[in-house]
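Work Package 3 (structural annotation) set out to generate three-dimensional models for the target panel prioritized at the project kickoff. During this period the team completed the workflow that converts sequence records into C-alpha cells, so that structures can be stored uniformly alongside our sequence database. As a representative example, we reproduce one entry of 883 residues exactly as it appears in the project archive.
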Amino acid sequence: MVFKCNVINAYANNSGDDISTPPTEKDYTVEDFQEDFILYNDSVERVKGDTIPFDSARIDSLKEIIKNPKKAESTFKSKVTYHGDDSIMIDNRHNKAYMWGNAWVKYEQIELQADYLEIDFENNEVYAKGLPDSTGKLQNTPVFIEKGQEYKSGEMVYNFKSKKGLIKKITTQEASGYIHGEKVKMASQDVFYIKNGRYTTCELDHPHYYIQSKKLKIINNDKIVTGPAYMAVEDVPTFLAMPFGFFPNQDKRTSGILIPAVGSSQTKGFSLTDGGYYFGFSDQFDLTFQGDVYSDGSWSGRALANYKTRYKRNGSLRASYTNNKEGDKDDPNAVIRKSFFVNWRHTQDPKAKPNSTFTAMVNIGSSDYFQNDLNTSSSNFLRNEYTSNITYTQKFRQSPFTATVNASHNQNNQDSIINFVLPEVNLTMARIYPLKRKNKIGRDKWYEKIGVTYSGGFKNELSTKITNIFPTADSENQPMTPADIIGDFNNGVRHRVNTSTSLKLGHLNVSPGVAYSETWYFKSVNQEYDTANNIIRDTIPGFSRFGSLNLNTSMSTKLYGIFAFKGERIKAIRHTMTPAVTFSYQPNLSKIHPEYFGERTDTAGNTTTYNVFEGSVYGTPNGSEMGLVSFQLQNIVEMKHKKRNDTTDKYTNVNLLDAWNFSTSYNMLADSFNWQPMRMDIRSRVGKFVNLVVGSTSDFYGLKTDPETEKVSRSTNFHYNQTGKFLRLTQLRTSVGLSLSGESLGTTKQNEEIDRIKAPQDENTIYEEERYVNFNVPWDLKVNYVLTYNKPLDEVTVVNSLTFSGSINLTPGWKVRMRSSYDFDQNKLGYTALDIYRDLHCWQIDVNVIPFGSRKSFMVNVKVKQGFLQDLKLTRNSRWFDN
C-alpha cells in the first residue's frame, strides 16, 4: 500500500535544519510509518529508539492526514534555522514546529533561545518559555537577541513579519543600566513599552535598588522615558520621587549637564560643587567644564579635554583656577588667594612617524595651588616639586644625526625657585669609524676601532623666584614683565667632539680618548666691590668664547672569586670585582687665555679672581691645570641556589649584593688637597621584601681650628696623621624599604588591569590608586625609612624620616587603608590619612579621615558605583577650611 502526501521532515535533531522551505512530495508506505511514528492528536512525532506497531484507529487517522494534507506556504524572506537538544516535533497539519531542551531559532538578525519553543509558520509567530525542573524551578527561560541587544524574559511571543511581540517578566541591559519589566509590548524593533518597570545599574536578577515606574518607554540607542517614579532600596520605597524620568540610552558619547552636589560649610556657606557640562564631541575628542561655587565668594573652575587619534596621538589637557576667599564676607582684611595649575600630557604613537617623536608632560602653576585648592588630593598636597618636559626628536634617514628640541621647567615650592629652559636644541652624531675599511679583509686593525662622536647644542635658561612670575596673595613683589624675563635669560652654544677607541691588552680593556669642547656665549660679567664690600655684577653684551681640551685613558678588568658548597641547596657564591683606573689631563686656560678671568679688589685691598662666564648655562673654563687619576671598584656578590623542597637540578642566580662600589680621585697637579673624598654606595635586597641603600662620603683630610677665631676648617694634613684613621666620615645616607603583601586573589588579567589603572600618567598628577580600591589583595604594608647624617666640619645635622602605608581586607567587602609618616624632630606623626571602603555590590561607602593637622577633615560618601545613576549619593563632610 502506497500513500502520496506532503511531509516536512517528521523528525530532526540536527542544528541548522532549514524549515522555511515548502515540503516536498514523497512516497511513503505503511511500514515506513509503523517503524518510525506514533500519532498524537493529529500530529506525528518520532520516538527515538522505539518501534510501536500501528493499530487500526491510528492507521485510519494517518490516512485522513495523508488524504487531506495542509499545504505549507512559507512567508519567510530568509532562511530559518533551528535546534533542539532533546527533541523536535513537526505538526504538518497546523504548520507548527515544537522544540525542547536548549532550543533556539535564528532568523536574519534575530535569535531566540529557550527550553521550549513553538513556531507557527502560518502566522509567522514564535512562542518561548522555560520548563520546570524536578524542583519546580524554571530552567532556560527565553533569551531574545536582536542586533546584539539581549532580552531575558519569563515567556515571550514574537511575530517575525510585523516585528512585534509580547514579553512577560523581561530583563535587559540598556547601555550601563538594566531594565526589569512585568509586561512588555514590542511596538517595533527599536521601541518597547513596559508595564511596572524598574531601572537600575545592579546586574542581579533581584537588584538591590531600582527606580520603579508603572510606565516606561525604551527607544533603542536613544533614550528611556518613565512616568511618575520613585526610588526603592531593598524593595523599600524611599522619599526620592519624581514626576517623570529621562535616562540616556546610547553607547556613543553624548553631551549633557553634570549635576552639582549641594553642600554647606561653616566658613564658606552653602555650596554647589562639581557641577558643569560635558561635551562628547566624538570618540576622538571630548571636553568637560566643572566648577565649585560657595556663598562667601570663593569659587573654582576646571576644564579637561581628552583627545585620541588611533595610530597618531593621544593626550589630555587640564586647566584649573581657584579663587579662595579667607576671612569674613564683610571683613576688609579678608584675603583672596588666587592660584592656577595646568597639566598637559601628550604622546605620539610610534606608528605615526617612525623617524620622529613628540611627547609632552607639563605640570606648572602657582606654588600654593595644592595648598589653596578646595579639592586637593593627598598626593598633590604632599608633593613639593613639579617638573615639565616637552620634547621633539627627529632622526635623519641614512645618516648618524639626530636633532632634539626640548623645553622644560622645574619648580620647588619650598625654596620658591623656578627654572625654565626655553628652548634647548641639540644635534648629535652617533659614533662613526672614519678609518674603517669599506672592504673588510681579516680582523680589524687597531686604528679602525677609532670612533668619533659629535654633539652640538643651544640652551636658553632662566632661574628666578616663583613669586616673580606667579605672585601669591602674600607676595610683595610685582610680577616680571616680558622684557624683564627676556633680559634675565642665560643662553649659549656648545660643541663637543670626542675621539676614542677600545683596545684589548691581555685581560685589560684600555680606552684612550681625546675630547674637545667649544663654548660660545653672548654676554659676559664684570665684577667689582662697592664701598660696603658687596659684589656688584654688570652684564656686558657681546660675543665671547672659550675652548677646553681633555686627554683621557681608562683601564678596567674583571676579577672573579668563587666559593663552592657541598650542600644541595646552595651550589656556589660568586664575587665579581671590576676595578677601573682613569687618567685625564686638562690644561690651565688662565695662562693661555687670561681674558677669561678678572680681578676684584675690596676696600681692604684684598684681590680675588673671578670668571667672566660665571653663572653661564654651560659652565666656566678651567682656571687650573688638572691631572686626575680616578679610581673605581665595583663589587657584585651572587649566589646560585635552588628552592627548598625542589627535587630537580634547576638552580637560579640571586644577587646578595646588587652593588658595593668605591670611587675617589687624585689630582697630581694640585698644590694641596690632592685626594678627593671617597664615596661608597651599597645596594642590596634582603630576602624578597627589604630594599637597602647605603651611601657615604669620607674625607682623607682632617680638621683644624683657628686659635684666634676658633673657626674650624679643613686641614691639609691627613686625618690618619691626626687620629690614626684613614678616613673622616662627612656624610652617611641610609634608606630601608619594606614591602609586604598577601597573595593576590585576582586572576592574572585582573592584576594586569589593576596595575595599568594604578600607574600614574605622570609623576605630578593625581594618582588613580587614591580613587581605586583593589579588593584582590587581602593586605599590604609598605615602610620606608631614610636617615641622612652630615658632619662636614664639627657641626652634626641628622635628618631622618619614616613613611608607612598599608591596607587590610577585614572581610571580602570591607577594606581599611592608612598612610602616615613620623616626624623625628618634633616626635609626632606627620600627615595622616585613613580610608575605609565598603563594597555593597552596586553601591559603595567611602570614608576618608584626616584626624589632625592643618588638613584635619572627614568625608563620608554613600553612592552608586557606576552607570548613569552614579550621582545618586549621600555625602557628609567636614572640610579642612572649616577648621
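The chain has nine helices and 59 strands.
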